[in-house]
Design a protein that fits this description.
two-stranded parallel ribbon; 63 residues; alpha+beta
Length: 63
């Protein structure tokens, strides 16, 4: 079995990315409250449905 992954890059806000990483790493910015939904991979259909909700910010899949 091969593990295939896709990586998509972005050029938006490239100058601020390093500063954003520093703020997250230092604890100055808390990212956990941004995850509004969390699902196991077996509930991926529910995850997509939650993503469509207006109140959804970030849907995370636990692998």
């Amino acid at each position: 079995m091969r593990r295939e992954i896709t990586i998509t890059g972005s050029m938006i806000y490239q100058d601020e990315f390093g500063e954003a990483l520093r703020l997250v790493a230092s604890g100055a910015v808390r990212t956990q409250p941004l995850i509004t939904h969390r699902f196991g991979l077996d509930r991926i259909g529910d995850a997509f449905a939650a993503h469509a909700e207006p109140a959804s910010i970030k849907v995370a899949l636990d692998l």
